[in-house]
Amino acid sequence: MPSFPAPLVSRLPEVGTTVFTVMSRLAQECGAINLSQGFPDFSAEDVLFERVAYWMRSGHNQYAPMAGMPALRAAIAAKVQDLYGASYDPEHEITVTAGATQALFTAVAALVHPGDEVIVFEPVYDSYVPAITLQGGVVRRARLAAPDYRPDWDAVQALVTPRTRMIMINTPHNPTGTVWSAADLQRLAEITRGTGIVVMADEVYEHIVFDGARHESAARYPELAERSVIVSSFGKTYHVTGWKVGYVLAPQALMAEFRKVHQFNVFTVNTPVQLALADYMADAGRHLRLAAFYQEKRDFFRRGLAATRFELLPCAGTYFQTARYTAIADLPDTDFVEWLTREVGVAAIPLSAFFGDGRDEKVIRFCFAKRDETLEAAFERLGRFC
Asked: Of 300, 310, 299, 303, nearest to 385 (Cα)?
Protein backbone atom coordinates (compact mmCIF):
# COMPACT_ATOMS: atom_id res chain seq x y z
CA MET A 1 0.00 0.00 0.00
CA PRO A 2 1.32 3.48 -0.82
CA SER A 3 2.00 5.75 2.12
CA PHE A 4 0.40 9.16 2.30
CA PRO A 5 1.40 12.26 4.21
CA ALA A 6 -0.19 12.81 7.58
CA PRO A 7 -3.39 14.88 7.58
CA LEU A 8 -2.83 18.60 7.30
CA VAL A 9 -2.53 20.31 10.67
CA SER A 10 -2.97 24.08 10.63
CA ARG A 11 -0.09 26.16 11.95
CA LEU A 12 -2.62 28.85 12.90
CA PRO A 13 -5.61 26.80 14.05
CA GLU A 14 -7.28 29.67 15.92
CA VAL A 15 -6.91 32.22 13.13
CA GLY A 16 -9.74 32.92 10.72
CA THR A 17 -10.35 35.69 8.23
CA THR A 18 -9.24 39.05 9.59
CA VAL A 19 -12.00 41.16 11.14
CA PHE A 20 -11.16 43.99 8.73
CA THR A 21 -12.01 41.80 5.75
CA VAL A 22 -15.15 40.47 7.45
CA MET A 23 -16.51 43.93 8.28
CA SER A 24 -15.62 45.47 4.93
CA ARG A 25 -17.38 42.60 3.16
CA LEU A 26 -20.44 42.98 5.39
CA ALA A 27 -20.47 46.74 4.77
CA GLN A 28 -20.44 46.13 1.03
CA GLU A 29 -23.21 43.52 1.25
CA CYS A 30 -25.40 45.85 3.32
CA GLY A 31 -24.64 49.09 1.49
CA ALA A 32 -23.26 50.48 4.74
CA ILE A 33 -20.81 53.35 5.08
CA ASN A 34 -17.49 51.65 5.78
CA LEU A 35 -15.81 53.25 8.78
CA SER A 36 -14.26 49.93 9.75
CA GLN A 37 -11.13 49.21 7.72
CA GLY A 38 -8.39 51.83 7.96
CA PHE A 39 -8.11 53.34 4.51
CA PRO A 40 -9.04 56.77 3.09
CA ASP A 41 -11.85 57.21 0.60
CA PHE A 42 -10.03 60.18 -0.94
CA SER A 43 -7.06 60.25 -3.27
CA ALA A 44 -3.47 61.41 -3.18
CA GLU A 45 -2.37 64.42 -5.22
CA ASP A 46 -2.22 63.99 -8.98
CA VAL A 47 1.44 64.93 -9.01
CA LEU A 48 2.29 61.67 -7.25
CA PHE A 49 0.49 59.63 -9.91
CA GLU A 50 2.16 61.69 -12.62
CA ARG A 51 5.58 60.83 -11.20
CA VAL A 52 4.73 57.13 -11.24
CA ALA A 53 3.68 57.40 -14.88
CA TYR A 54 6.83 59.37 -15.69
CA TRP A 55 9.12 56.67 -14.31
CA MET A 56 7.11 53.90 -16.00
CA ARG A 57 7.35 55.65 -19.36
CA SER A 58 11.05 56.30 -18.78
CA GLY A 59 11.63 52.54 -18.73
CA HIS A 60 12.12 51.95 -15.01
CA ASN A 61 9.96 48.82 -14.90
CA GLN A 62 12.40 46.07 -13.95
CA TYR A 63 13.55 44.83 -10.55
CA ALA A 64 14.74 47.41 -8.09
CA PRO A 65 17.72 46.59 -5.89
CA MET A 66 16.69 44.19 -3.13
CA ALA A 67 16.98 46.84 -0.40
CA GLY A 68 15.14 49.50 -2.41
CA MET A 69 15.95 52.21 -4.90
CA PRO A 70 18.92 54.30 -3.71
CA ALA A 71 17.03 57.56 -4.31
CA LEU A 72 14.20 56.52 -2.02
CA ARG A 73 16.49 55.22 0.70
CA ALA A 74 18.39 58.51 0.59
CA ALA A 75 15.13 60.46 0.88
CA ILE A 76 14.08 58.36 3.87
CA ALA A 77 17.45 58.92 5.56
CA ALA A 78 17.14 62.68 5.07
CA LYS A 79 13.60 62.73 6.50
CA VAL A 80 14.57 60.73 9.58
CA GLN A 81 17.61 62.94 10.18
CA ASP A 82 15.49 66.09 9.92
CA LEU A 83 12.66 64.84 12.15
CA TYR A 84 14.44 62.75 14.77
CA GLY A 85 18.11 63.74 14.59
CA ALA A 86 19.00 60.13 13.83
CA SER A 87 21.54 59.10 11.19
CA TYR A 88 20.82 55.90 9.24
CA ASP A 89 23.10 54.66 6.47
CA PRO A 90 20.92 54.21 3.36
CA GLU A 91 23.14 51.40 2.10
CA HIS A 92 23.07 49.19 5.18
CA GLU A 93 20.35 50.44 7.56
CA ILE A 94 17.26 51.23 5.45
CA THR A 95 15.16 48.73 3.48
CA VAL A 96 12.06 49.43 1.40
CA THR A 97 9.30 46.88 2.00
CA ALA A 98 6.01 45.74 0.51
CA GLY A 99 4.06 47.61 3.16
CA ALA A 100 4.31 47.62 6.94
CA THR A 101 2.71 44.22 7.56
CA GLN A 102 5.39 42.52 5.46
CA ALA A 103 8.04 44.47 7.31
CA LEU A 104 6.69 43.41 10.70
CA PHE A 105 6.39 39.76 9.66
CA THR A 106 9.87 39.72 8.16
CA ALA A 107 11.43 41.23 11.29
CA VAL A 108 9.79 38.61 13.50
CA ALA A 109 10.78 35.81 11.12
CA ALA A 110 14.38 37.02 11.08
CA LEU A 111 14.86 37.62 14.78
CA VAL A 112 12.52 35.36 16.80
CA HIS A 113 13.49 31.73 17.35
CA PRO A 114 11.31 28.88 18.69
CA GLY A 115 10.77 29.36 22.40
CA ASP A 116 11.70 33.04 22.39
CA GLU A 117 9.25 35.25 24.25
CA VAL A 118 7.78 38.35 22.63
CA ILE A 119 5.92 41.01 24.62
CA VAL A 120 3.01 42.73 22.86
CA PHE A 121 0.67 45.44 24.10
CA GLU A 122 -3.01 44.52 24.07
CA PRO A 123 -5.31 45.54 22.39
CA VAL A 124 -2.82 44.46 19.75
CA TYR A 125 -2.90 44.85 15.96
CA ASP A 126 -3.97 41.56 14.48
CA SER A 127 -0.85 40.67 12.48
CA TYR A 128 1.58 40.59 15.39
CA VAL A 129 0.57 37.43 17.21
CA PRO A 130 0.27 35.17 14.11
CA ALA A 131 3.75 36.25 13.02
CA ILE A 132 5.16 35.30 16.43
CA THR A 133 3.25 32.01 16.50
CA LEU A 134 4.50 30.96 13.07
CA GLN A 135 8.09 31.31 14.28
CA GLY A 136 7.42 29.22 17.38
CA GLY A 137 7.66 32.25 19.63
CA VAL A 138 5.77 32.63 22.90
CA VAL A 139 3.44 35.63 23.20
CA ARG A 140 3.39 37.61 26.43
CA ARG A 141 0.63 40.23 26.69
CA ALA A 142 0.80 43.57 28.48
CA ARG A 143 -2.65 45.07 28.92
CA LEU A 144 -3.42 48.66 27.96
CA ALA A 145 -6.37 49.70 30.11
CA ALA A 146 -9.34 51.81 29.01
CA PRO A 147 -10.09 54.63 28.71
CA ASP A 148 -6.64 56.10 28.04
CA TYR A 149 -4.85 52.82 27.15
CA ARG A 150 -1.49 53.85 28.59
CA PRO A 151 1.25 51.27 29.22
CA ASP A 152 1.83 49.99 32.74
CA TRP A 153 5.62 49.73 32.78
CA ASP A 154 5.79 47.88 36.08
CA ALA A 155 3.63 45.17 34.52
CA VAL A 156 5.87 45.12 31.45
CA GLN A 157 8.97 44.77 33.63
CA ALA A 158 7.36 41.80 35.36
CA LEU A 159 6.89 40.07 31.98
CA VAL A 160 10.59 40.29 31.08
CA THR A 161 12.50 37.03 31.51
CA PRO A 162 15.84 35.69 30.23
CA ARG A 163 13.90 34.31 27.25
CA THR A 164 12.47 37.67 26.18
CA ARG A 165 13.72 38.30 22.65
CA MET A 166 11.48 41.15 21.47
CA ILE A 167 9.08 43.84 22.66
CA MET A 168 6.67 45.02 19.98
CA ILE A 169 5.43 48.58 20.41
CA ASN A 170 3.01 50.66 18.36
CA THR A 171 2.79 54.44 18.68
CA PRO A 172 0.60 56.17 17.67
CA HIS A 173 -1.45 53.13 18.61
CA ASN A 174 -3.92 51.24 16.48
CA PRO A 175 -6.72 50.69 17.51
CA THR A 176 -6.87 53.09 20.47
CA GLY A 177 -5.33 56.31 19.15
CA THR A 178 -3.00 56.57 22.15
CA VAL A 179 0.34 58.35 21.63
CA TRP A 180 3.27 57.36 23.82
CA SER A 181 5.26 60.02 25.65
CA ALA A 182 8.97 60.66 26.04
CA ALA A 183 8.67 59.16 29.53
CA ASP A 184 7.28 55.96 28.00
CA LEU A 185 10.22 55.61 25.63
CA GLN A 186 12.69 56.37 28.41
CA ARG A 187 11.15 53.69 30.60
CA LEU A 188 11.33 51.21 27.72
CA ALA A 189 15.02 52.05 27.37
CA GLU A 190 15.52 51.35 31.09
CA ILE A 191 13.74 47.99 30.89
CA THR A 192 15.76 46.80 27.89
CA ARG A 193 19.13 48.17 29.09
CA GLY A 194 21.78 45.49 29.42
CA THR A 195 19.63 42.86 27.66
CA GLY A 196 19.55 41.30 24.20
CA ILE A 197 15.94 42.40 23.70
CA VAL A 198 15.04 43.81 20.28
CA VAL A 199 12.41 46.54 20.11
CA MET A 200 10.04 46.19 17.16
CA ALA A 201 8.61 49.72 16.75
CA ASP A 202 5.53 50.00 14.55
CA GLU A 203 5.37 53.72 13.75
CA VAL A 204 3.17 53.74 10.66
CA TYR A 205 1.09 56.66 12.00
CA GLU A 206 4.19 58.70 12.89
CA HIS A 207 2.90 61.81 11.09
CA ILE A 208 -0.61 61.71 12.58
CA VAL A 209 -0.15 63.12 16.08
CA PHE A 210 -2.51 65.80 17.39
CA ASP A 211 -2.74 68.82 19.68
CA GLY A 212 0.85 69.96 19.26
CA ALA A 213 2.40 66.76 20.60
CA ARG A 214 5.38 65.22 18.85
CA HIS A 215 5.86 61.66 17.75
CA GLU A 216 8.32 59.94 20.07
CA SER A 217 10.08 57.68 17.60
CA ALA A 218 12.45 55.04 18.91
CA ALA A 219 14.92 56.68 16.52
CA ARG A 220 15.03 59.77 18.79
CA TYR A 221 16.63 57.76 21.59
CA PRO A 222 20.10 56.41 20.75
CA GLU A 223 19.90 53.72 23.42
CA LEU A 224 16.69 52.42 21.87
CA ALA A 225 17.69 53.02 18.26
CA GLU A 226 20.65 50.68 18.61
CA ARG A 227 18.30 47.78 19.41
CA SER A 228 15.21 48.79 17.39
CA VAL A 229 13.67 47.77 14.11
CA ILE A 230 11.43 50.71 13.15
CA VAL A 231 8.64 50.37 10.59
CA SER A 232 6.78 53.11 8.73
CA SER A 233 4.32 53.27 5.83
CA PHE A 234 3.98 55.45 2.75
CA GLY A 235 0.43 54.17 2.37
CA LYS A 236 -0.69 55.79 5.62
CA THR A 237 1.26 59.00 5.00
CA TYR A 238 0.31 59.66 1.38
CA HIS A 239 -3.21 58.14 1.20
CA VAL A 240 -2.12 55.21 -1.00
CA THR A 241 -2.65 52.16 1.21
CA GLY A 242 -3.21 49.96 -1.84
CA TRP A 243 0.33 50.55 -3.07
CA LYS A 244 1.68 48.56 -0.11
CA VAL A 245 5.03 50.33 0.21
CA GLY A 246 6.74 50.91 3.53
CA TYR A 247 10.23 50.87 4.97
CA VAL A 248 12.37 49.66 7.85
CA LEU A 249 15.13 51.38 9.81
CA ALA A 250 17.55 49.30 11.86
CA PRO A 251 21.22 49.22 12.86
CA GLN A 252 23.37 47.30 10.42
CA ALA A 253 23.59 44.03 12.38
CA LEU A 254 19.81 43.77 12.74
CA MET A 255 19.20 44.91 9.17
CA ALA A 256 21.55 42.24 7.83
CA GLU A 257 19.35 39.59 9.45
CA PHE A 258 16.18 41.32 8.25
CA ARG A 259 17.40 41.33 4.64
CA LYS A 260 18.24 37.64 4.75
CA VAL A 261 14.51 36.95 5.07
CA HIS A 262 13.28 39.92 3.03
CA GLN A 263 15.16 38.74 -0.07
CA PHE A 264 13.22 35.48 -0.08
CA ASN A 265 9.72 36.50 1.02
CA VAL A 266 9.51 39.64 -1.14
CA PHE A 267 12.92 40.30 -2.72
CA THR A 268 12.05 43.78 -3.96
CA VAL A 269 9.29 46.37 -4.32
CA ASN A 270 7.63 48.20 -7.24
CA THR A 271 10.36 50.22 -9.01
CA PRO A 272 8.48 53.20 -10.55
CA VAL A 273 6.46 53.73 -7.37
CA GLN A 274 9.68 53.89 -5.34
CA LEU A 275 11.14 56.50 -7.67
CA ALA A 276 7.92 58.53 -7.59
CA LEU A 277 7.87 58.47 -3.80
CA ALA A 278 11.47 59.68 -3.70
CA ASP A 279 10.47 62.64 -5.88
CA TYR A 280 7.37 63.34 -3.80
CA MET A 281 9.29 63.35 -0.52
CA ALA A 282 11.33 66.35 -1.71
CA ASP A 283 8.50 68.53 -0.35
CA ALA A 284 8.64 67.83 3.39
CA GLY A 285 5.38 69.72 3.88
CA ARG A 286 3.53 66.76 2.42
CA HIS A 287 4.16 64.75 5.57
CA LEU A 288 4.52 67.66 7.98
CA ARG A 289 1.02 68.94 7.16
CA LEU A 290 -0.59 65.56 7.75
CA ALA A 291 -1.17 66.04 11.49
CA ALA A 292 -3.19 69.23 10.97
CA PHE A 293 -5.13 67.63 8.12
CA TYR A 294 -6.22 64.67 10.23
CA GLN A 295 -6.76 66.71 13.38
CA GLU A 296 -9.42 68.65 11.48
CA LYS A 297 -11.05 65.35 10.55
CA ARG A 298 -10.83 64.06 14.12
CA ASP A 299 -12.46 67.20 15.47
CA PHE A 300 -15.11 67.14 12.74
CA PHE A 301 -15.87 63.50 13.54
CA ARG A 302 -16.10 64.08 17.29
CA ARG A 303 -18.41 67.06 16.79
CA GLY A 304 -20.58 64.98 14.50
CA LEU A 305 -21.02 62.26 17.12
CA ALA A 306 -21.58 64.67 20.00
CA ALA A 307 -25.35 64.45 19.55
CA THR A 308 -25.32 60.64 19.80
CA ARG A 309 -25.10 58.50 22.92
CA PHE A 310 -21.62 57.23 22.08
CA GLU A 311 -18.99 57.96 24.72
CA LEU A 312 -15.94 59.10 22.76
CA LEU A 313 -12.62 58.00 24.25
CA PRO A 314 -9.42 60.05 23.88
CA CYS A 315 -7.80 60.20 20.44
CA ALA A 316 -4.28 61.66 20.43
CA GLY A 317 -3.15 60.24 17.09
CA THR A 318 -3.87 57.90 14.13
CA TYR A 319 -7.07 58.24 12.10
CA PHE A 320 -9.12 56.06 14.44
CA GLN A 321 -11.68 57.05 17.05
CA THR A 322 -12.77 54.60 19.75
CA ALA A 323 -16.18 54.88 21.37
CA ARG A 324 -18.04 53.11 24.18
CA TYR A 325 -21.66 52.25 23.32
CA THR A 326 -23.11 51.11 26.68
CA ALA A 327 -25.70 53.92 26.63
CA ILE A 328 -27.03 52.56 23.32
CA ALA A 329 -27.08 48.78 23.74
CA ASP A 330 -25.99 45.93 26.00
CA LEU A 331 -24.89 43.69 23.14
CA PRO A 332 -21.45 42.09 22.88
CA ASP A 333 -19.28 44.31 20.69
CA THR A 334 -19.23 41.85 17.77
CA ASP A 335 -23.04 41.73 17.78
CA PHE A 336 -23.24 45.49 18.15
CA VAL A 337 -21.08 46.21 15.08
CA GLU A 338 -23.11 43.71 13.07
CA TRP A 339 -26.33 45.47 14.14
CA LEU A 340 -24.72 48.83 13.40
CA THR A 341 -23.79 47.65 9.91
CA ARG A 342 -27.04 45.89 9.02
CA GLU A 343 -29.60 48.13 10.68
CA VAL A 344 -27.93 51.55 10.97
CA GLY A 345 -25.82 51.34 7.83
CA VAL A 346 -22.43 52.22 9.34
CA ALA A 347 -19.61 49.68 9.76
CA ALA A 348 -17.07 49.74 12.60
CA ILE A 349 -14.62 47.32 14.23
CA PRO A 350 -15.17 45.61 17.62
CA LEU A 351 -12.22 46.16 19.97
CA SER A 352 -12.51 42.58 21.23
CA ALA A 353 -10.87 41.51 17.94
CA PHE A 354 -7.63 43.01 19.27
CA PHE A 355 -7.61 40.93 22.48
CA GLY A 356 -6.38 37.35 22.57
CA ASP A 357 -9.12 36.32 24.98
CA GLY A 358 -11.83 38.28 23.16
CA ARG A 359 -12.10 40.73 26.06
CA ASP A 360 -15.22 42.83 25.50
CA GLU A 361 -15.06 46.35 26.91
CA LYS A 362 -18.11 47.51 24.93
CA VAL A 363 -15.81 49.66 22.81
CA ILE A 364 -15.68 49.91 19.01
CA ARG A 365 -13.34 51.64 16.56
CA PHE A 366 -14.29 54.01 13.76
CA CYS A 367 -11.98 55.19 10.95
CA PHE A 368 -12.38 58.90 10.17
CA ALA A 369 -10.00 58.98 7.18
CA LYS A 370 -12.95 59.79 4.95
CA ARG A 371 -14.29 62.70 2.93
CA ASP A 372 -16.47 65.11 4.89
CA GLU A 373 -19.52 64.08 2.89
CA THR A 374 -18.92 60.42 3.82
CA LEU A 375 -18.68 61.34 7.50
CA GLU A 376 -21.75 63.58 7.31
CA ALA A 377 -23.76 60.71 5.83
CA ALA A 378 -22.57 58.50 8.69
CA PHE A 379 -23.56 61.16 11.25
CA GLU A 380 -27.07 61.28 9.78
CA ARG A 381 -27.51 57.51 10.05
CA LEU A 382 -25.96 57.22 13.51
CA GLY A 383 -28.01 60.16 14.78
CA ARG A 384 -31.27 58.40 13.91
CA PHE A 385 -30.49 55.20 15.83
CA CYS A 386 -27.78 56.01 18.37
From this structure: 310
